[in-house]
């Protein structure tokens, strides 16, 4: 199966860098080199001031062979995300695609930052997972997202709950299904301490049973990471039996078969 789309990328990386052709073109060049033909730019909402729709339009003009989607990764960051949500509402019609994410837990804890293993070790991991999936359901039901990113990011450092969480996963997937959202398969988990696809095969199979569609993504914070480990992802999808991925244009979802 040939994967052709990467729907999670951060041209601005980890700081505000206003969109320009100099910033964006290397991403499209990298996509072309890797045989990717459909790319979503999804910077963190805290850097929404750097997103420039005119620059995206120019980028499209210069790269007609690649579909370039205007997107954002909407977070639950307590400081910036209220502004991010407003920005998404105001720019909804110019955006193709909005990812929904949870990076902040109780106590404004940015749990996925490097070094947060120590805080995981201090906390009750079952409670951390409960808190995480409550926030996931909130974002999923917000009406402001098209797709959920890295659905089990909470496993990033390998801390696992002590009980079976199938009931929580099921409730979460039901919320996602009712909101008619897609879910990404993210290779980013393979470069994190947990070394596991986001989400786990257990969650993927439960999502398939509910008819939830998938996107493919790398969560690249540098163009060198675009499409990272997509061969491995393709093999995994083959093994699980996923035969199509979806793409988005102005929030309209379309399934595409990945045969051949
Ligand atoms: Zn994220
Ligand atoms: Zn991201």
Major sheet: arrangement of strands:
1-2-3-4-7-8-9
The low-confidence runs, each spanning 5 or more residues with pLDDT under 50, are none
The coarse silhouette is globular
The distinct bound ligands, ions and cofactors come out as: zinc ion
Mean pLDDT, rounded to whole units?
Answer: 97
Strand and helix order:
EHEHEHEEEHHEHEHEHEE
If you compute it from the alpha carbons, what radius of gyration comes out, rounded to the nearest whole angstrom?
17 Å
Number of strands: 11
- The helix content, as a percent range, equals 25-40%
Main beta sheet: strand number and arrangement?
7 strands, parallel
Which labels suit this protein?
7-stranded parallel β-sheet, alpha/beta, 11 strands, 260 residues, globular, 18% strand, binds zinc ion
Gist of the model:
The protein has helices spanning 21-33, 53-62, 81-91, 117-122, 125-140, 166-178, 201-209, 230-240, and strands spanning 5-6, 38-44, 67-74, 97-100, 104-105, 109-110, 147-148, 182-186, 214-217, 244-249, 252-257. It is an alpha/beta fold and 260 residues long.
């Amino acid at each position: 199966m040939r994967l052709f789309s990467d729907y999670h990328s951060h041209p601005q990386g980890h700081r505000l860098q206003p969109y320009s052709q100099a910033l964006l073109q290397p991403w499209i060049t990298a996509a072309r080199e890797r045989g990717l033909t459909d790319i979503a730019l999804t910077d963190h909402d805290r850097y929404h001031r750097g997103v420039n729709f005119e620059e995206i339009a120019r980028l499209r003009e210069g790269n007609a062979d690649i579909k370039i989607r205007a997107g954002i990764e909407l977070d639950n960051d307590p400081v910036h995300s209220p502004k991010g949500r407003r920005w998404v509402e105001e720019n909804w019609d110019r955006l193709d695609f909005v990812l929904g994410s949870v990076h902040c837990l109780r106590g404004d804890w940015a749990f996925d930052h490097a070094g947060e293993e120590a805080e995981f070790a201090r906390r009750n991991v079952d409670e951390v997972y409960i808190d995480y999936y409550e926030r996931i359901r909130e974002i999923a039901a917000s009406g402001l997202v098209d797709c959920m990113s890295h659905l089990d990011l909470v496993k990033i450092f390998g801390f696992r709950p002590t009980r079976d969480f199938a009931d929580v996963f099921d409730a979460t997937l039901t919320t996602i299904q009712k909101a008619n959202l897609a879910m990404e398969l993210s290779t980013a988990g393979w470069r994190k301490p947990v070394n596991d696809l986001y989400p786990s095969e257990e969650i993927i199979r439960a999502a398939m049973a509910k008819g939830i569609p998938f996107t493919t993504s790398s969560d690249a914070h540098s163009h060198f990471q675009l499409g990272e480990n997509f061969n491995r992802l393709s093999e995994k999808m083959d093994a699980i039996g996923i035969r199509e991925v979806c793409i988005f244009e102005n929030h309209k979802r379309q399934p595409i078969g990945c045969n051949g």
